[in-house]
Amino acid sequence: MEIKEIKVGIADMNTAGSPHRLITIGLGSCVGIALYDKVKGIGGLAHIMLPDSTQFSNIKNPVKFADLAVPLLIKDLEKLGVNKRNLKAKIAGGASMFNFSDKSMIMDIGNRNSAAVKKILEKCSVPILSEDLGGNKGRTMIFDTSQGGVKIRTVGMGIKEI
Questions:
Q1: In whole angstroms, what is the distance from residue 95 CA to residue 112 CA?
Q2: pLDDT digit string (tens) for 34-62?
Q3: Beta strands in the chain (DSSP E)
Q4: pLDDT value of residue 40
Q5: Domain of 122: which CATH number?
Q6: Cα end-to-end distance, the chain, whole Å
Q7: Is pLDDT at 100 greater than 90 in this prediction?
Q8: Which is it for the CA torsion 142, 89, 8, 157, positive or negative?
Q9: Which keywords fit this entry according to its UniProt record?
Q10: What pTM did the predictor assign?
Q11: Where are the alpha helices (DSSP H) in 14-124?
């Protein structure tokens, strides 16, 4: 079987079964969320931009927000036969890509995104197995659904598995 590499854009999500890969690039302050069911060999990847949808009205793309994307991704995985209790998460991104003289939480969107993703995963009872968060460099996330492995390519730092 040919292994497909399925792209996940910014404010996007997708699902795949073994042996395919889900890939998202451009994780700066954004956070990539890989959810995997080892029993079924099925996973999903979301690329969120913002932590919280409650400050917005007329939301056209719910996947942009951590609080909406995670439940939607879980729902899509359940439609494929995944048992939510089997899901495990690996997350990456949440960098501070810009230096501001005001270091307030309002400006630190990367940190806020990371915290929001952790909060919604906990609320959904999905444990986080590993993470690669923070710093000040962009990342690419490569999620291999054959084993649930996630490789992170960080600008200027090479590739590591989380």
A1: 10
A2: 999 999 999 999 999 999 999 888 899 99
A3: 5-7, 12-17, 21-27, 31-37, 42-48, 87-93, 128-133, 139-144, 149-154, 158-161
A4: 94
A5: 3.30.1330.200
A6: 26
A7: no
A8: negative
A9: Chemotaxis, Hydrolase
A10: 0.93
A11: 66-79, 109-123
d(CA 108, CA 95): 9
**Overall domain count for the chain:** 1
pLDDT at 108: 85
Structure tokens at 114: 């990371």
Burial 112-134 (b: 16+ CB within 10 A, else e): bbbbbbbebbeeeebeeeebbbe
Q: What is the pLDDT of residues 20-37, one digit of tens each?
A: 999 999 999 999 999 999
**Residues near 57 by Cβ (< 8 Å), separated by ≥ 6?**
none
**Is 30 annotated as catalytic?**
yes
Query: Which of these is catalytic: 22, 30, 109, 150?
Result: 30
Tell me the pLDDT band of 101, cut-offs 50, 70 and 90.
Answer: low
Using an 8 Å Cβ cutoff, are 152 and 92 in contact?
yes
Domain containing 112: what range? 5-161
Burial string for 66-97 (b: 16+ CB within 10 Å, else e) reads bbbbbeebbebbeeeebeeeebbbbbbbbbbe
